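DATA SHEET
Item: assembly model
Revision: 1
Owner: S.N.
Input lines:
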Amino acid sequence: MTSATVPEAFDAVAKGYDRLVGSNPGYHEHLRMSARRMGLANEGEGLRLLDLGCGTGASTAALLSVAPKAKIVAVDASAGMLAVARAKSWPSSVRFVEGRLTTKLEVAEPAKVRGQYDAVFAAYLVRNLPGRDAGLGAIHELLRPGAPLAVHDYSVADSIRARLIWTAVSWGIIIPAGSLVTGSAALYRYLWRSVLRFDGAEEFERRLGAAGFVDQRTQTMPGWQQGIVHTWLARRPRE
Ligand SMILES: C[S@@+](CC[C@H](N)C(=O)[O-])C[C@H]1O[C@@H](n2cnc3c(N)ncnc32)[C@H](O)[C@@H]1O
């Protein structure tokens, strides 16, 4: 499989996704940490937020926990993942929309996502985009001037230790558990490979800068994910 077919691959594993990520210590807490790091004021009151690549809603729940008074639009290209997300209980301020980020946000009903957002959260999405630079450019356009972006993802290019731990965790736990729960190892082998190929932290900061973002900075997580899972923060310049 390739990055272009990632959403379809998620359709096939959607039902087992929550069970798998739930067994990953820190998964949900780390999403909350990344969401919190955007520093959204007043519990998000008056803000409109976008969760891109929301999957089954784990990142949406993280965003909701730090901004319970915001309006949240959560978008994913996998109908299967969205069906699992929608089956959960959400406040009326959260809306799920099927759509694909390419050089723009492509949705069947543009009225549902129209306008600029006060923050964008993209957890485990950007690594999977066939056109990463174009995707970041599209995210830049979705933000109002001055608004923050948090990208949450694995990155191991900068450290041999991180690459070794990532490979050990992938082949020792993620790939066997993934194929047990979902019946296919393909997505989890892709995950392992795509993380090894993904940008290092500084390289990704440069990529954000090239897409027009400013104030880029990187923070990591505690636990085995230290130096492996990162939050990249940046914002669209004020005009
Ligand atoms: C690993 S899941 C992460 C889900 C969620 N953000 C979380 O943290 O659990 C990645 C999600 O990104 C979605 N995705 C991948 N490429 C996409 C694209 N170009 N546009 C929209 N969603 C995409 C997949 O369908 C999948 O649900």
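QC remark: The beta strands are 48-52, 71-76, 94-101, 105-107, 119-123, 148-154, 214-220, 229-235.
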